[in-house]
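Section 5.1 Outputs to date
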Amino acid sequence: MGIRLNLKNKVQKRLSEKMAFFVHLFIYGNINWIFFEQNEWGK
């Protein structure tokens, strides 16, 4: 029981780290895209 619970926690932690990474990429990419669009309009 304890081993299974521990494994589940490890998997959930890994999943949440992946989610945080994808969210970071998504936000960072959107910020870069917005700045790029503004630079294109500024020319």
